[in-house]
Design a protein that fits this description.
Shape: globular
Order of helices and strands: HHHEEHEHHEHHEHEEHHEHHE
Distance between the termini: 58 Å
Structural class: alpha/beta
Number of strands: 9
Largest sheet: 5 strands, parallel
Number of helices: 13
Radius of gyration: 24 Å
Strand order of the largest sheet: 4-3-9-7-8
Strand content: 5-15%
Length: about 350
């Protein structure tokens, strides 16, 4: 019986011939006479590549074939992602070590302390939730050593906050422990899974209950609505196309949920909302249902100010100038902060 890995290799090698055929055809049909011989400026290569692509009748096929070969034969993704064990994918961003790495972490901690002080002067409790790297929670699936600085990033950030008197909820242990009940990160995505986000939401609710923060309650209930196929954001670095069913990565499933808030009060009542959520796509994207799980765990309604694609600090700046914060501030703010952003120098 042929193993899955052998099937991957056979399929990959088979398509080498296809790719070669496409390449030869594209080369012979490229309009090379239209390319000036400007080697000194170093533009000949890029112009040739443009002509090659323009002459390639199967450009998408070539791209997916290269992706399939890279993944199936060599176990690699294109720049931006890393292939781990058992079909697990990781963003390369988590392993980057940019300039001023440690100084940026300290600056991020200072910014969180400033926000906490600003809110404290208005009687608002801030709960920073530190989301660890997927590469840390699933280090056993990474299949390579993480750079030393990145392995110390979370501890340095949390220690810097503690030194400033800022209590945090470090979600690392929660996400590692919850693996007993299912994956806490999506296999082909950068983000946590609904199982992971629910575990963190429940940990937040426990922390808030211990702190004695008082806020308006609301009866919230959550129910499962089934599961669907899911393609993660890291698959764009592994474009295996029609070969995916042979080579991978395998399709994964994601559970769906719905959370409802029971209406309270009379017809003309306007219940206050005392909880706000600020953060990144971990909180903004409905796939993870983090806001819904928080409502259920806290038994309170909330407003979600999280944004995709802007990191954790820009959404907080926007929140602090929002009409909601300025005119009817909440009593509790939950700030979700993926630790990989703290070393990037984007706090201003």
């Amino acid at each position: 019986m042929i193993s899955p890995i052998s099937l991957q290799h056979l399929a990959s090698c088979g398509f080498v011939l296809s790719l070669a055929t496409v390449g030869i055809f594209s080369h012979t049909n490229a309009d090379l006479d239209a390319i000036p011989s400007d080697i000194i400026r170093g533009s000949l290569q890029s112009q040739y590549e443009d002509a090659f692509v323009a002459a390639n009748p199967l450009e998408r096929f070539a791209v997916t074939t290269l992706g399939a070969l890279r993944y199936g034969l060599f176990g690699q993704a294109s720049k931006g992602a890393l292939v781990g064990r058992d079909g697990w994918l990781f963003t390369a961003e988590e392993l980057n070590q940019n300039t001023d790495f440690n100084a940026n972490i300290d600056a991020a901690a200072t910014r969180v302390a400033e926000v906490s002080l600003e809110m404290a002067t208005r009687g608002i409790s801030l709960v920073p939730v530190i989301v660890p790297d997927k590469a840390e929670v699933y280090a056993d699936q990474l299949d390579r050593a993480r750079p030393v600085n990145t392995t110390k990033r979370r501890d340095r950030f949390v220690a810097a906050l503690n030194a400033k008197g800022i209590a945090t909820l470090d979600a690392t242990t929660v996400l590692k422990t919850a693996r007993q009940n299912g994956d806490t990160f999506m296999r082909t995505d950068t983000h946590w899974s609904p199982n992971g986000s629910r575990a963190v939401a429940e940990a937040i609710a426990d922390r808030v209950a211990e702190s004695g923060i008082i806020f308006s309650s609301a009866a919230a209930s959550t129910e499962s609505t089934g599961s669907v196929n899911f393609d993660g954001d890291l698959l764009r670095y592994v474009p295996t196309g029609a070969l995916r069913s042979w080579i991978g990565p395998a399709t994964e499933q994601i559970d769906r949920f719905s959370t409802t808030i029971e209406a309270q009060g009379g017809l003309f009542d306007s219940p206050s909302i005392d909880v706000a959520l600020v953060g990144t796509s971990f909180s903004a994207r409905p796939d993870w249902h983090f806001a819904g799980f928080l409502k259920h765990a806290l038994q309170a309604d909330l407003l979600n100010f999280a944004e995709e694609g802007r990191g954790p600090f820009a959404p907080m700046r926007a929140f602090l100038t929002s009409e909601f914060y300025q005119n009817s501030p909440p009593k509790l703010v939950i700030w979700e902060i993926p630790v990989r952003y703290t070393s990037k120098g984007t706090v201003q």
